[in-house]
# Entry
Amino acid sequence: MKRQKNKLAGLQKRKAISGYLFIMPFIIGFLVFMVQPLIQSLYMSFCDVQLGAGTFNPVWRGLFNYNYAFRVDADYTRDLTEELARMAIYSLAIMVFSFFVALVLNQKFKGRAFVRSVFFLPVILASGVMLKLDSDNALMAAVAQTVELNAQGTTGITDAIQEILRTSGVGVRAFEKLFEVIDNIYNVAISSGIQIIIFLSGLQTISNSMYEAADIEGCTKWESLWKITFPMVSSLFLVNWIYTVVDFCMRSDNKIIEKITDLVNVNLKYGLASAMSWAYFVLVMLIVGISSLIISKGVYYYE
# Structure
């Protein structure tokens, strides 16, 4: 018994060493290239950075930039609230979408490899090609304009349902957000590639014998989903949630990121931009920490 425990401890130690070796390049890169800029930006958030001909002179102003961001700037607080709310809604939508797509892709059917590659293809192209098609491609813009013109004067089923719910006065705000997500299902799908792969890798580790035993005991597919599938991949929900939130906060269409970029590149207000960046960073980390703590309570870990 003691020998078996020592063997398991040695195995866990080797796994831990392998894990640290795997993330070591990131740790080294972070310490070498990221720590100094982070400290410098934190210091600048408390300063009024004065630029001159080849000079960079930060003058200490205390909490002036933070006070200006939250109490003087009329747009920052509103944009911050809207982006955090949009982050929560779209992150939940991406989690649900990616999980159920992974369930479908885990089934056996013809052309499964091709369908999997279709869902992961946007991740490969997101380095520039797909973003270029989305942003300023004249052909795509012309197609979108044609579709919009042809849609005028017609009522889609989602528009009709939305109008009925709006006139009924029941949960108007919630339904508006729901239909907003449905209208942007393309963005949800294109942002779910990594999450689908992670969920799919977890689903493939579940032994078929567990489902066979459940079938023998008379469990339905729905019961197997919640009693076997969901608990066995619950740890991946935490990983995917953190990745989804962080990835959403770094999107190019984020109003806060756009505002900070304009302050740096156009207005040259490095101190104010740093203060807004750090305030946004701290709020996002708080949301990630609190939500991760809540999710971790329901995570089922198994050996």
Observations:
- Residues 151-155 have pLDDT under 50 and may be disordered.
- The CA atoms of residues 80 and 256 lie 6 Å apart.
- The chain has 15 helices and two strands.
